[in-house]
Design a protein that fits this description.
Blueprint lengths: L1 E5 L2 E12 L1 H18 L6 E6 L3 H8 L7 E6 L1 E4 L2 E7 L13 E9 L3 H12 L4 E10 L11 E6 L4 E2 L15 E8 L1
Parallel strand pairs: 3-4, 3-7, 7-8, 8-9
Antiparallel strand pairs: 1-2, 2-11, 5-6, 10-11
């Protein structure tokens, strides 16, 4: 077990069992890519990837989408440790002119509270986007605070904190090829 240093607390963490294997993730990405290609076959679209968590997901989806797919990224942050902060940092970096009169597919790693996707949707429509759809790798099985229904969901998972395949704890464990449960233990 590894140690995590936090002021006034002794914490350790545990990387738990594999929830989604690399093979299962890659198989689902091929299915999602086919569905997205079909949905946008008659209209151009732009992908907006929400960093940092969606990096691997966007990259693997793009390998199977039309070569002319336009891609933009914005770095957002709404977590501190294993909990949502209730605020979203980075929304001010969305360059509104880029999205005017376009069909936008927002790709994110996980739908948790719905706050991030709801805020992004509002900004994109205020920017003049024609249409905004969502694709998330993971959707937690819990009642979202904001009513967001992604058009594409890779997997539904229990309401647990997870790491791997782009998802992190304090910037670490993104490089795991599988998605695993993660917990902090205060001592």
């Amino acid at each position: 077990m590894n140690r995590v240093n936090k002021p006034n607390a002794r914490l350790s963490y545990k990387i738990g069992r594999v929830l989604l294997s690399e093979e299962k993730i890659q198989k689902r990405i091929l299915e999602l890519s086919a569905e997205i290609r079909e949905a946008y076959r008659k209209r151009p679209f732009m992908i907006l990837g929400l960093l940092n968590g969606s990096l691997f997901f966007v990259t693997d989806l793009l390998k199977n989408l039309p070569l002319r797919t336009e891609v933009e990224f914005v770095q957002l942050k709404s977590y501190a440790g294993t909990a949502s902060t209730g605020s979203i940092q980075g929304l001010e970096w969305i360059e509104k002119k880029k999205f005017e009169a376009k069909n936008i597919l927002v790709i994110d790693d996980i739908l948790d509270s719905g706050q991030t996707l709801s805020a992004v949707k509002e900004i994109l429509y205020d920017s003049g986007a024609l249409n905004v759809e969502f694709c998330v790798l993971l959707k937690k099985l819990k009642k979202e605070q904001k009513p967001i229904q992604p058009k594409w969901v890779g997997f539904e998972i229990p309401d647990v904190f997870v790491v791997g395949y782009g998802l992190d704890y304090e910037g670490m464990y993104r490089g795991l090829k599988s998605i695993r449960s993660f917990s902090l233990i205060q001592k």
